[in-house]
Design brief:
It contains twelve helices and eight strands. It is of the alpha/beta class and 293 residues long.
Length: 293
């Protein structure tokens, strides 16, 4: 997928239609769409094309439990356009192919994982707004942030890595602690794969890191992070080290993602911060503060 190019005019036309809409009017799905269901999906592909000759895969997995619906809403209203256009303008990577995943809780939610296609044009708008904002989650202080790792590692095929040996990017976004191991039953129920043993976060991280640079964004305004930020941050750093980004303003998620990719691709961190204006620069500085090139 991803054979066309991003059209800023199409995005502008779309945003005019959302100005007065509520979140429920933007996200009208009241159950997981069949095409976003990962169960039985063999592969999601990011392929080079005439329009995108050197594609680069970028996955953004957003927590849609509880109050985290605000993240999807912010992306649908403004963030998607910022993400695409800033990558195209700043060129930390070429020809971005974007996939969205929606994250719930594999212990209790009916839609613990939803997965779009990789897209390089405005088709991703429909796929984003077709996500089911289930608003569930359990009382266990974590969501299934490791389900995107498993799916990306075992059910995606990306030309940037397979043709050029260049890793894609995967960002998970939420306010809670890292998940516990993925069980055999969870993997079977969500994705349809039959395994003989559960997979720990360490094992999953090894699997997904072969093809992707892996980041987690802690949403500080979420209820769990608000009350236990030091603990949540420490737990995530035990898993991902410097690739943990603290987001102090959820509306600036796209700017933080773009900045992290820039630094990972070799840009000077101070220069990246200076490239943003006003409060955005402060948010980005806080988020990428622990990163090194």
């Amino acid at each position: 997928m991803g054979s066309s190019r991003w059209d800023p005019d199409a995005w502008t036309s779309y945003t005019k239609t959302t100005t007065t809409k509520t979140r429920d009017a933007i996200f009208t799905t009241r159950g997981m769409k069949d095409y976003l269901n990962p169960l039985g999906v063999a592969i999601r592909e990011s392929r080079d094309s005439a329009a995108n000759p050197e594609s680069n895969a970028i996955i953004v997995g957003i927590d849609v439990t509880g109050s985290m619906g605000m993240i999807a809403e912010a992306i649908a209203r403004e963030g998607l356009g910022v993400l695409f256009q800033e990558v195209l303008d700043r060129k930390p990577v070429s020809d971005p192919h974007l996939m969205f995943m929606a994250i719930g809780d594999a212990n209790c939610d009916s839609a613990p994982l939803q997965v779009s296609q990789f897209e390089a044009d405005d088709k991703i708008i429909t796929q984003l707004t077709d996500i089911y904002l289930e608003g569930g989650g359990g009382g266990n202080n974590f969501e299934s942030y490791n389900l995107p790792w498993y799916f990306a590692a075992t059910h995606t095929s990306i030309d940037c890595f397979e043709k050029r040996g260049k890793k894609g990017y995967i960002f998970t976004v939420g306010d809670e602690f890292p998940a516990s191991d993925l069980t055999i039953a969870q993997i079977k129920a969500v994705v349809g794969d039959t395994l003989t043993q559960p997979l720990s976060n360490a094992e999953l991280l090894t699997m997904v890191s072969r093809m992707y640079n892996v980041f987690h964004v802690i949403v500080e305004e979420g209820s769990c992070a608000r009350s236990r930020l030091k603990e949540v941050t420490s737990a995530w750093k035990d898993v991902l080290g410097q690739n943990v980004l603290s987001l102090s303003d959820y509306r600036r998620l796209s700017e933080v993602i773009v900045s992290a990719i820039q630094v990972c691709e070799g840009s000077n961190k101070a220069d990246v911060v200076k490239s943003w204006s006003g409060d955005t620069a402060l948010v980005v500085s806080r988020a990428i503060g622990s990163m090194t090139t």
